[in-house]
Amino acid sequence: MDDYLNLFVEETSFYNRIVLGTFLPESWWGPLPHWFQGWLRNYIGGVLLYFISGFLWCFYIYYLKRNVYLPKDAIPSNKAMLLQIGVAMKAMPWYCALPSLSEYMIESGWTKCFSRISDVGWLSYLIYVVVYLVIVEFGIYWMHRELHDIKPLYKYLHATHHIYNKQNTLSPFAGLAFHPLDGILQAVPHVVALFLLPVHFTTHIALLFIEAIWTANIHDCIHAKVWPVMGAGYHTIHHTTYRHNYGHYTIWMDWMFGTLRNPVEDEVKKM
């Protein structure tokens, strides 16, 4: 068992060497405890992913495709985006504690994670990924909904994110502009799933960081019309009504629990 758990430690150590070794002298991070190396790596990776994805996406939709996807009066001001960046950067050190904690629990053998796809086979791996995503979708839907329905949670946590409630105040940089505890709570289903079914370790880590790209995408106010994806068109409605479209990747949970509102139908009604 110890030999198998060492596979997880070797993998996280490999990631540490790639990220920390690229940006910092080894004499700075080498003596640090393994868990702290993981947090620092997640922090550097999270910041880079946030800024690279945010700047590239904003450059594309607000500059290269200016007035193509969004009318001029729907483009957020630089001031609004800088405020979003400030909120996200204050929360980023805390966000990175969650994947660091999940890595520690995995390395300690507390979860059902497996290291190699060959341990379960490709068919089982794919089934586990699908079930994992269903658990995450269900968990994030209800966590998000309760952050609205439970008034103290909304007032002291989620309201920080909902000050961005119009097209011209939303941008890809708003994707991680949360109160730190709010952002962590909405990501907790990723960790809970590790105790419920076997999950491939690398896939779990990758999906956690894909969250940063996904949240940037759903705050750009562009309705992609890709069924059943809970894209920015649906999420923009969530920011304007506060009572619809709590889902994460798909519309299914909102459809099942009666909170779905379709942006296409909204446009027809306005016409």
TrEMBL record:
Q: Which UniProt keywords apply?
A: Membrane, Transmembrane, Transmembrane helix
The answer to whether keyword Transmembrane applies is yes
Q: Where is the Fatty acid hydroxylase domain?
A: 129-259
* Annotated compartments: Membrane
Coiled-coil segments on the chain, per record: none
Q: Which domain of life is it from?
A: Eukaryota
* Short name of any one Pfam family annotated for the protein: FA_hydroxylase
Residue ranges annotated as transmembrane are 43-62, 122-143
Q: What is its main location?
A: membrane
Q: Name one GO cellular component term.
A: membrane
What's a Gene Ontology MF term here? oxidoreductase activity
Q: One GO BP annotation here?
A: lipid biosynthetic process
Q: Which PANTHER family does the entry mention?
A: STEROL DESATURASE (PTHR11863)
Q: Which family does it belong to?
A: Belongs to the sterol desaturase family.
- Protein name in UniProt: Fatty acid hydroxylase domain-containing protein
Q: Which organism is it from?
A: Anisodus acutangulus
